[in-house]
């Protein structure tokens, strides 16, 4: 089941437990349009690498030549985890609390430029 409205998720989970479920496993939160958002992070990483390379080249009194290689170190995709507290367990008569949060996607690139004198 996919629920996009977090205001509905708490009552749904409460109904599941009220129907007899004593364990809810596999609940996960994901970012929509992950590929598109990661591609944007990659573009920003390349632009940042270029900005830094230009800064270093200027400071060293050289010019950047052609790109020799580009590699991606890794992509950071958040992995949510469940936390149970005594406060949450004591709230058995209220709907299961679900709070909106924030996720961060990131990409890291390494670019090697030729140095032109």
Q: Unreliable runs, pLDDT <50, ≥5 residues?
A: 81-86
Strand segment count: 2
Largest β sheet strand count, sense and barrel closure: 2 strands, antiparallel
Note the run of SSEs as H and E: HHEHE
Distance between the termini: 60 Å
Number of helices: 3
Give the overall form: rod-shaped
- Main sheet: strand order: 1-2
Structural class: alpha+beta
Strand content: 15-25%
The helical percent reads 25-40%
List keywords for this structure.
single chain; 117 residues; two-stranded antiparallel sheet; 3 helices; 21% strand
In short:
By secondary structure, this protein is of the alpha+beta class. It has helices spanning 6-18, 34-60, 86-90; strands spanning 63-76, 106-116.
Structure description:
The protein has 117 residues and is α+β, with helices and mostly antiparallel strands. It contains three helices and two strands. The chain has a two-stranded antiparallel sheet with strand order 1-2. The longest helix is centred in the middle third of the chain and has 27 residues.
Topology:
Blueprint: H1 6-18, H2 34-60, E1 63-76, H3 86-90, E2 106-116
Antiparallel strand pairs: 1-2
């Amino acid at each position: 089941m996919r629920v996009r409205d977090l205001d509905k998720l708490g009552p749904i989970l409460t109904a599941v437990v009220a129907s007899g479920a004593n364990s809810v496993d596999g609940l996960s939160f994901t970012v929509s349009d992950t590929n598109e958002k990661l591609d944007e992070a990659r573009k920003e990483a390349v632009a940042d690498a270029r900005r830094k390379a230009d800064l270093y080249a200027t400071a060293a009194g050289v010019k950047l030549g052609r790109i020799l290689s580009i590699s991606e170190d890794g992509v950071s995709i958040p992995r949510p985890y469940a936390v149970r507290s005594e406060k949450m367990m004591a709230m058995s008569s209220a709907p299961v609390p679900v709070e909106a949060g924030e996720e961060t996607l990131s990409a890291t690139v390494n670019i090697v430029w030729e140095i032109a004198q």
